[in-house]
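Translate structure to sequence.
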């Protein structure tokens, strides 16, 4: 679980990987981040509020739940803004092997992260991320409205690992490796 936490050591972005094909990974990353926000961050906030406003939470449990859902909006906005601005990815994006960079592959600026994340709620219109999904699907590099206006793109990191399907690099099993280490 700790390998989900982004660090200041950022991988090199693979700008060629930006495409609508990443939308599934992006959706799973968003669900992971929403769960973290609600179950970890928001729960801690609600615990403090329940101590302070115990009578309200006992008298109006439905209203308290609605308040927690509404409170998730600014929590999630701040969470995604800070992680993407400072570390280029949220824990969900790290788990899904994604990062957010500017068009030229450099780190996000405060302005870029603010625009990208502020427009996240416009992309939710009219319901369930419909506008963002349609725009990203029709874009060659998978950009939603927030990405377009902030000049950002979601990409995969570069990797030095050989492809498993590369005909020039034969696959070696663990048995082959251990035999060559014994012989050499």
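Result:
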């Amino acid at each position: 679980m700790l390998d989900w936490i982004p660090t200041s050591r950022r991988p090199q972005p693979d700008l060629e990987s930006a495409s609508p094909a990443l939308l599934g990974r992006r959706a799973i990353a968003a669900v992971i981040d929403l769960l973290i926000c609600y179950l970890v961050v928001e729960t801690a906030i609600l615990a403090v509020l329940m101590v302070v406003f115990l009578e309200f939470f006992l008298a109006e449990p439905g209203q308290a739940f609605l308040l927690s859902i509404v409170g998730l909006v600014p929590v999630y906005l701040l969470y995604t803004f800070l992680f993407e601005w400072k570390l280029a990815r949220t824990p969900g994006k790290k788990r899904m092997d994604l990062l957010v960079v500017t068009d030229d592959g450099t780190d996000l600026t405060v302005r870029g992260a603010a625009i990208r994340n502020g427009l996240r709620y416009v992309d939710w219109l009219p319901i369930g991320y419909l506008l963002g999904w349609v725009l990203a699907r029709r874009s060659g590099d998978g950009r939603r409205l927030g990405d377009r206006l902030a000049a950002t793109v979601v990409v995969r990191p570069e990797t030095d690992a050989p492809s498993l399907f590369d005909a020039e690099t034969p696959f070696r099993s663990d048995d082959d490796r251990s035999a060559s280490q014994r012989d050499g």
